[in-house]
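I hope you will forgive my troubling you with a question about protein structure. You will find the record immediately after this paragraph.
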Amino acid sequence: MRLRRIVRENHGSTINHCCFVPPPPPPPRRHPSSSSSPSSFSSNDRHRPVNVLATVASNQVNFYDNQHCGDHLDIMSHFVTDTSDEVLITATWLSMDEDDDDDDGNDDGDAVLATGGSSGVVHVISLTQSKEISQLRLPSAASSHRGGPGIVLLVGHPRDRNLLLAVMSDAIVVWHVASETVVGRVELDDGGVGGQDVACAAWHPDGRTIVTGGAKGAVRMWDAPTGILGLKVRDVEDGVFPIGIRESMRGPFEFHCQIIDSIHFVRTESTSHYNILTKSRDGKVVLWDPVTEEKIHTYRTSRTPNPCRTALSSDHRSFCIGDSNGRIQVYSLVDGERRAELGHPRSNKAVKACAFSSDDRNIVYVGDDSLIWRFDHIDESLLREWDDEEETDA
C-alpha cells in the first residue's frame, strides 16, 4: 500500500476517532435444499454512503468524501457542539440494515452518526440534513452519580437503527435513540462489574449479546435485554425501562492482563459462529473461540502501551492497529502473520484510531498530530505503468 493523502484538520488537537459508514452485511448463506436465491441487497444498500468518513476531535465532527472527488479526501460537512470545552472521544454510525416503517421520524436511507465524550451527552447527527437531530442525556439523578459520567465508547446495534450501546464511566447503557430513552442499564459500582470497570464493548452480529472488556483484562458476555429489538417509540412509552442485565453475565474469559480497549466479532465459515478478536492496551491481540475458549492466534503488536482500537477489514481476513510512534501494522486473521507496516517519517505521534474502507483498498488512521493519513492499495499493473512513464520522461 502507498501513502496517497494527508489531510490536516483545523483544530490543532488530537483526532480521537475515525470511522467509515459500514458496508452491508453479507447475505445469508443459502441452505443446500433451498431453491430460492436470496437477494444480496436490502432496499438501502444501493444508496448506502460507504464512501463517507467521519472524524471526531475536540468538540467537532468532520465528514469526508473518499470516493467522488478523484483520489482526494474532501470535506463534505462540519459540526461543532455547543460546549467549547467538550472533548469528543468516540463515534459510531447507526444501523442502516433495517428497512421498516418505524416511527422515528428519520429517513431510513439517512446515514446517522452518534458521537460523545467528556460531557456524557450523545450527539445524534444526520448526514443528509447536515445537523444535529437529537441529544441523548441521562436523567439528572443518574448523571449526577460520581460527578457525571463521561462516554468512553459508543457502539451502534448491527440490525436496529434505534439501539445504541454506550460504555460510560459508571454504567453500561443501551439507548433507544428515537424515544431518547435508556432501555437497558448495568450500574458499575466502585469495583465495577465483578470487580472490574468496563473499558469497551461490542454487539454480537445477531444483536442479542453484548460482550464487554474490563480494566484488568477480563472479557464477559451479557444477554441483551429481552424485547428491546425492534422497539417503536410507542412501545417504549408504554413499557417499563430501564431493564437490568446484570443477572445474565457469563465469563470471565481471561486472555489478557491489562485493560481491554478493543473487541470485534470475526466471521467464520459457519453460518452462525463468530470468533472474537480482543486487544489490550499493552499491544497484545488475541483471536479466540468463545465456544471452546481456545486461542486461535496471538499477536504482539507493540511493547509500548497505546490506546488504539483495532480495525477489522470488510472481508474479516485482516485487521490493523496503530502504535505510539505513528505506524500501522496490518495482520492476517487467517494465518496470524503480519502483512505490512505502514508509516511515514512525518508520522511520528501516537495513533488513536484506524479504519478500512468498505472495499478494503484504503486504510485511514488518525491521532495526536491532527492529521488524517490515507494509504491506498495500488495494483501492480498500475505501478508498472507509472514506472514506465517515469522512464519515458527521463
